[in-house]
Amino acid sequence: MKRFKYLVVPLLLVVAVFTSSCSEKEETKVEDKIKIGVSVATMKEAVYSFMKQAMMDNKDECGVEILWASSNNNEMNQVGNVEDLLARGIDVLILHPVNTVAATALVKKAERENVPVVSMDRLPDNVGVACHVTANSFLVGQVQAEYLAEKLSGKGNVIILEGEAGNDVAREITAGNKDVLKKYPNIKIIVDQAHRSWSRDLAMATTENALTNHNNDIQGILANNSGMIMGAVQALVAEGLTEKIVTVGSDADKDSCQAIINGTNNADVDKMPYQLGLEAFKVAVKIAKGEDIGAEKTIENGSFRVPVKLTPVRLITRRNIEKMKERWPKLKF
Q: What is the 3-state secondary structure (H, E, C) of 224-235?
């Protein structure tokens, strides 16, 4: 069997080169600062703390004030947060939606206030934004599925644990999964289930039900995020099946990485959240300054064309898990 080579989308000198628009050390008065509002769906998942850290690490050098609001995965909370940020006179809104359908109204609300919107990680449905910054979610799904297919030698029954129904990230990761798996006629997707709020507990229940309904005849599980793959791992541990079923998540959070070390999870795809947060910040600053954002491509979003900036991803297995020590220093090897 040939060795699987994980993929990385290069983002050249992502941290070091962010000096072209922020390196001039001019004294910035408070009233002259660029004011960027950030509304995120949640801070319960650790990856979002790294996105925030990227912005906080660079705000002073760039003369930026960051106003950060978490919505605790509640759509109405996000409506209130965005209204508050707009009332505080922000120049640009970075939006990470709780629900991509409901977020359309938030983008239109910002438009009425002449505030450009940068969507981060999740794209609001059928609306124009100034830029969409995201890891290549389709590639994430492809990387997951290529690894799984190799581990299964091209045959077996597979579960796909999707995130929120209608969410563009969940949709793209799953599309990437299926784009690869369709090349393997002996791999069968026997369960493909969406989960509200990307719930770990619901993913565990889906896995438990699938094991029961298919008499444990399952060889692989793909999940749209780390939390859901850990829900699946919980179900497998309870049944003593972790050595028999290949599991692959996405986000490479601490629990998932520790499970890779422990041998209860096989792999995860790191979407490199610091770089994602930094790129969203860079784009917002350029928009505020009227500079070209340098989008790699545009995509259709309903009746709109949206410019896109992509950030890197990488597969994490036991072979390269030490790469995660910097992010998760308390990992136990």
A: CCHHHHHHHHHH
